[in-house]
Amino acid sequence: MSTLRRSSTTASLSAFFDSRRSLSAIARSSIRRHTSRTSSSSVSTRSEKLGKKIRNTKGMIRSKSSVNRDEDSLSQGSLFSFDTVDKLVVVENFLNLERSYVDKLKLLVERYEQALREHSKDSLTLRHNVNTVFHHPCHLLMIHKSFLIAAQHRVKKQASGCNVPILFGDLFLEMVNQFKVYIEYAKDFPFNMETLSTIESQYIQTKELIDKIGKEVEISLPDLFHVPLRQVETYQHLISNVRHQLLGGEPSSEAIILEEAEYKLEEVTSVIDRIMAEVRKRTRSTRKRELIHKGMMAGQNEKSVLKMRYLFLYNDVLICARMPKTSDHASLYLPK
Fold it and tell me: What is the pLDDT of residue 285?
């Protein structure tokens, strides 16, 4: 009998860890292919070198002619180079990503939080719990509204012919200190999910309200709370792709700024990873083992011979068992 262990988590955290594992694999694979990272002890040295590079290469990128998005001008191809068109596509994709994220934060704050705040005005305990759970989402919404406005303003200035970078590496560097609120979000996430679960179990009408809003907006409250935990890593992955696929290692000021922004975001992501790994470890040690599913499975070996196996899927382990032979006079049993 062979066993394959996998990480466990609470029901409220399972969606986050499943999605985070796939996204983390993609992002880290991209980083391994294209760049090597220094240790945390050399952060200050790295920053000094990057700053020197930026100063030495300052002014290398000159602004293109003002961009007219009119289709006739695009077809003529006389206003900007192919490189600029690629960058504008990246910028538009980023703006769409950021708008989508801000919309999700608005659902958290303007739909769920406001409705629950109104619903809890007659209960001091419930109101306190609601304020606790939604403290960080309200802060994140303010941050990303400002971030989106700054990015949109940058696009307008570039389109009007101003000498500004097309990409947003410098904006990420300006915002990275504010993005550290995601670390606090990760630290408080297990407690907030537990508080939310308590609210739903103790206040039937509140749970009904949460379920009603979830059907209206087509996304549940726990699912929305999972979204911010992946956002910094999404930015990091996006910047990595832009640097390696669009700029191609070009020694430009834009590339150097993007590299530093990616590195700063990776620092935040690594802290979040450690926090959630510790949460997963604590959960695994305290959670009772539960059987999720069991059943038959047929597989083929290298000689294309069918082999029957019986699988037991628990919340923290998958057991693959050999089917007993008839001569063994054995019967299937449920592992403890």
Answer: 60
Q: 3-class SS at 35?
A: coil
d(CA 227, CA 94): 17
Average per-residue pLDDT in the chain? 74
| CA distance from start to end of the chain | 14
- The total of other beta-carbon atoms located within 10 Å of residue 334's CB is 7
Per-residue buried b or exposed e for 89-102, using 16+ beta carbons within 10 Å of the residue's own CB: ebbeebbeebeebb
Q: Model confidence over 99-154: pLDDT tens digits?
A: 999 999 999 999 999 999 999 888 899 999 999 999 999 999 999 999 999 999 98
Report which secondary-structure segment, H or E, holds 98.
Answer: helix 82-106
**Residues of 26-61 as b/e, b for ≥16 C-beta within 10 angstroms?**
ebbebbeeeeeeeeeeeeeeeeeeeeebeeebeeeb
- Residue pair 4/210 in contact (Cβ under 8 Å)? The answer is no
Say how far apart CA 336 and CA 140 lie, in whole Å: 44
Decide: 23 and 230 in contact? Cβ < 8 Å. Answer: yes
Of residues 253 and 132, more confidence is placed in 132
Torsion of CA 26, 27, 28, 31, to 10 degrees: 120
For the beta carbon of residue 159, count every other beta carbon within 10 angstroms.
Answer: 13
